[in-house]
Amino acid sequence: MSDASRIDISGVTKLYGPVKAVNNVDLVIEGGSYCCMIGPSGCGKTTLLRMIAGHEAPSSGRIAIGGQDVTHSRTGSRGTALMFQNYALFPHLSLTDNVAFSLRVKGEATEPRRAKAREMLDRVQLSHLADRLPSELSGGQQQRVALARALITNPKVLLLDEPLSALDEFLRLRMRVELKRLQNELGITFIHVTHTQPEAIALADQVVVMDHGLIEQAASPREIYNHPHSPYVARFMGGQNVLAGKVESISGDAATVTTADGHRHDLPSAPGVTPGAEIRFSVRRDRIHILPEAPARNGLTGKVINTEYQGTFVKVALDTGTREEFIIYMPDEAWFARPISVGETIHATWEPAASHHLKGTNNSAGTPLED
Amino acid sequence: MSRSSGRSSPLTPYLQVAPLALIMLAMVGIPLITVLLLSFWQSDGISIYPEFTWANYQQVLTSPVTLTLFLNTLKYAGLTLIATLLIGFTCSYFLVFHVRNLKWQIGLFLLCTIPFWTSNVIRMVSWIPFLGREGVFNQALISAGVIDQPLDILLYSDFAVVLTYIHLFTLFMIVPIFNSMAKINPNLIEAARDAGASGWQILWTVIVPLSRTGIALGAIFVVTLVMGDFFVVRVMSGGQSASVVSAMKNQIDQLFYPEAAAMAVLLIVVVLLMVSAILRIVDIRSELAK
């Protein structure tokens, strides 16, 4: 199964007029894995998905599914099924006939195809509504119908275009679990486009972070979260502060960096940098401690501009004189033992191991635009 | 400014409906009742007597001419319906699914309405020099060597009548079908393609079913217009064919008003049956409410 649903994308570009929606992208998605494509609106993730599904043809490049070149083969004959963002259920057909649609166009007789469709509806726990029209269902139910309709073709690859964005928070979390369970059960490749970071982190075996038609980083969620490739990835995925400085000295792979305001920081691993170079690095927000005194190294000082209680931790935002806020996630006991009020000046520090050199150059803000 | 809220009397909705209701009563209700009354009165070709009789209906319903007239009119309506449906559906399909640019869409749509910039009579009459024995079309065919003798069936024939109907009424088909088609979510077509449907399958399983409200509305327009016409039949058939209404016109010219009225009532019943048959196939009300 696993090799049959492996996807190889090589050198794929999609032009809309002069605009490169997808720019010379190379990507391998292992068969049977759960891949999440994430990025702000207009980053090319949906275009890439639609090219895999065959709804758009690449301007150049090659797409293979299970080793077979499908770049120009017909939609619906390449072993993919796409689940649309707004579900795209046929409003004039009952749930059974919606799910049975692909069997109908293949010429399967009415009774066997309806029986199969009902079986599939049973699988998504909707068999009691089999004769209803889509307009009589709730959003969550419509989505399960869309899922059943996509799966009845026995696809090698299921493509999901922002499947959870139209649901409320509660349903979204439930459907997320459902999707993951289904993917484990079926063992086929899922490609899921989203702009919600927790969704990608929670679901994916492989996260593909995109920006401006390029893949910034494609790796496991843990890798993406702990070792972001560029300042953009670090900011977009969250959980990291991005700092900039000049390399002062190096010893082996380790480097010492001085920021514009004179603070010194140790980077345990920054291979390839040279003294004098301007570099950026990230610091995990949840690995930062508060000190009574300004630390000699690996720390900074700032004025608290906001605190937000998050249940298990407290989010403290500091103004450190740069344009970017410096965020600390404090354990709630630590915060309640010594609450910090807005306007206070505090000192923060971290272990050198909590920082990570950002090799990539994409320095955009990475705030996801709302769709 | 905000005096409307909270102080409406129970009469308000009736007052709001009143203007339209009065117009409908005066313009539709009263004439209809007059026709209905008239159809039960007596006449002798010179004057009309307000005395109850079934004679008009007896005559209309037993005369073999009535059946011929209705069959002839239904033939016109059927042929026109098929042709306008094919043309209207194709035009709308092209406008909605092939012309993606909104400006082009509006421009081409306006082009469809150009024939409506002149009166029905001019549009109809302008076919005569084109289709006549010595007309442009025959001349062209002869000079191209396709035929030796001019074709007679082009003008003053059923062909000419139906052709003129198609010319006059196709827009009534295009507009509602265009409207229904424009509401089809393009994702539905992609979803069908994703499920492996071919172009024809998408047309039959998705686009036609979702355009049916427009098709039904257009069919109602075309059928009622053709069923109610007498002028086109009279001019374009050269007096060789008759429709229900053109026969009625003859009776009116001969002052047989009550018989014409009975015929009119029969026509109304037939057209109402046809419209309700269309409405039975497509529930326009619930579709429009979506």
Question: Quick gist of this model?
Answer:
The complex is a heterodimer of chains A (371) and B (290). With 371 residues, chain A is of the alpha+beta class.
Which terms would index this structure?
heterodimer; A: 371 residues; alpha+beta; Rossmann fold; 6-stranded mixed β-sheet; 5-stranded antiparallel β-sheet; 34% strand; elongated; B: 290 residues; mainly alpha; MetI-like fold; two-stranded antiparallel ribbon; 15 helices; 2 strands; 72% helix
Rg of chain B over CA atoms, rounded to whole Å, is: 24 Å
Assembly level: heterodimer
| The CATH fourth-level homologous superfamily of chain B | MetI-like
**What percentage of the residues of chain A does DSSP assign to strands (E)?**
25-35%
CATH architecture of the largest domain in chain A: 3-Layer(aba) Sandwich
Mean pLDDT of chain B: 88
Low-pLDDT stretches of chain A are none
| Coarse structural class of chain A | alpha+beta
Instruction: Tell how many strands the DSSP assignment of chain A holds.
Output: 20
Structural class category of chain B: mainly alpha
Mean pLDDT of chain A: 89
Query: Which term fits the overall shape of chain A?
Result: elongated
Biggest sheet architecture of chain A: 6 strands, mixed
Overall tally of structural domains of chain A: 2
Poorly predicted runs of chain B are none
CATH homologous superfamily designation of the largest domain in chain A: P-loop containing nucleotide triphosphate hydrolases
Task: Spell out the helices and strands of chain A N to C.
Answer: EEEHEEEHHHHEHEHEEHHEEEEEEEEHEE
Total domain modules of chain B: 1
- Biggest interchain interface, per-side counts: A-B, 23 and 18 residues
CATH architecture of chain B: Orthogonal Bundle
> Total number of helical segments of chain B?
15
